[in-house]
Amino acid sequence: MLLGCIADDFTGASDLANTLAKGGMRTTQFIGVPAEPAAGDCEAGVVALKSRSIPAAAAVAQSLAALKWLRQQGCRQFLFKYCSTFDSTPQGNIGPVGEALAEALGTRGAVACPAFPTTGRTIYQGHLFVKDRLLSESGMEKHPLTPMTDPDLRRFLALQTKTPVGHVPWATVDAGPDAVKTALKEAAGRGETLVIIDAISDADLFTIGAALAEAPLVTGGSGIALGLPENFRKAGLLSGKGSAFTPVDGPTVVLAGSCSGATREQVRRHAAQHPGLALEIDKIMSGTLTPDQAAFFLMERIRLTPICYSTATPEEVKAVQDRYGREAVAEAIEGFFGELAVTLNNRGVNRIIVAGGETSGAVVSALEIDRLDIGPEIDPGVPALSGSRNGPLALALKSGNFGAPDFFDKAAAVLAGKGVGGMGTEDKSAGGAA
Ligand SMILES: Nc1ncnc2c1ncn2[C@@H]1O[C@H](COP(=O)(O)OP(=O)(O)O)[C@@H](O)[C@H]1O
Ligand SMILES: O=C(O)[C@@H](O)C(=O)COP(=O)(O)O
Fold first, then answer.
1. What is the pLDDT of residues 38-80, one digit of tens each?
2. Half-sphere exposure of 144 toward its Cβ, with a 13 Å CA cutoff?
3. Segment holding 308, helix H or strand E
4. Among 1, 199, 302, 338, which is disulfide-ready with 362 (CB 3.0 to 4.6 Å)?
């Protein structure tokens, strides 16, 4: 393994794995820190943690355990992946985890770059934008778990770190890889462990990637990985093998626990054309709606690609959080989706599309899948994934704000090996109608 990645949530992990696979690295997503060594032909390993919204000390401990395993696999570079909207709180976890990894690797001057221009996330003058809005006016200020109210990444990250936060402005990035390298070296000399770096286009990210060929630690969104495969290719280290993704045909369900803007529209659209079960949170909290009852509803309609969703407006989310507490609601809903996914898979559902990072974490953890192969991209940042539980299983783990309005139908097709094509996967599909 060449590149060892630690992702703070499961959709983020597949977003990053997607970038690396598209860049030509044979990539595997691991669910949690594996107990076994990776396959010998794995070139990039992405360890998916569910550490974005847990206490900082726990996030640090899990990330260091992942680092230890990745080092044992022989990795020569490490990447800490967090959200392109920098999802975190003043207490962490991006700063504490970034600093702990840097300390373990004995390095400073590591880039901190959540930019993902394809999905509208750009950084300029240290400020994060989502399309034409500052982060704090993008809707992310109303996120159920990590409301983002400060778009100045330098200021916000500094709340989370022990050491000073650096900044490399866009003019330096525009001057090329050597200028970036020098700026990062100077930042390290000033004792800055993490350095926000401006990036407004993929070209900027390729420039930064080229500057990072020798960097022990890279931190950021999936965009920061754009230029990394090329460094390994230039060094003659890539095998050129495609992904080991296996398409799966069969019953399909959509589980949506994200309340983000893009998901709300995707849910509205899918539920208008397919059977839908809208979860009443009060009933989940009181135990009067069980995953088994939901599974019964969905199995009755399974040929029609039904959707089960807790997706709600910010006002509805706030009302239930005020009634029961933010953590209690999140835990109950995530637990519900996890149990539901297990029940459905036990009854033969082998294509599961999940919306929401925390929700995906809950579902994949409950399914107890240990690794996933990376397939074709469904929409930017979301690949098809294949693994195994009760036989072959295909998954799509969609970040709340990613994907076109028809994402769920598109995902069902790609998981079956239809529709979007083309990144040299080993196609072992048995075929057949959905
Ligand atoms: N109706 C709801 N009310 C309150 N919280 C909710 C509701 N639906 C989902 N949630 C919780 O909100 C969080 C959404 O986070 P996540 O799944 O990561 O989505 P996203 O990818 O949009 O951030 C989860 O913890 C989920 O359980
Ligand atoms: O970087 C991103 O935007 C995604 O990869 C990601 O991490 C999304 O997180 P969720 O919105 O919580 O799914």
1. 999 999 999 999 999 999 999 999 999 999 999 999 999 999 9
2. 32
3. strand 307-309
4. 338
Tell me the pLDDT of the chain averaged across its residues: 94
Write the pLDDT tens digit of every residue in 272-284.
999 999 999 999 9
Sign of CA dihedral 146, 150, 151, 153: negative
The predicted complex's ipTM stands at 0.97
Using a 6 Å cutoff on CB, does residue 285 contact ligand 1?
A: no
- Domains of the chain, each with CATH number or no CATH: 3-234 (3.40.50.10840), 252-415 (3.40.980.20)
93: cis peptide before it, omega within 30°?
yes
- 273 three-class SS: helix
Dist CA 35 CA 21 (whole Å): 23
- For the Cβ of 364 lying below 6 angstroms from any atom of ligand 1, the answer is no
Q: What is the DSSP string of 142-198?
A: G-SS------BHHHHHHTT-SSPEEEE-HHHHHT-HHHHHHHHHHHHHTT-SEEEE-
CA of 433 to the centre of ligand 2 (A): 32
Asked if 110 and 183 touch (Cβ cutoff 8 Å), the reply is no
Q: Relative to the alpha carbon of 142, which ligand is closest?
A: 1
In 3D space, the residue among 13, 68, 15, 23 whose CA is nearest the CA of residue 45 turns out to be: 13
Name residue, tokens 């009760």.
390
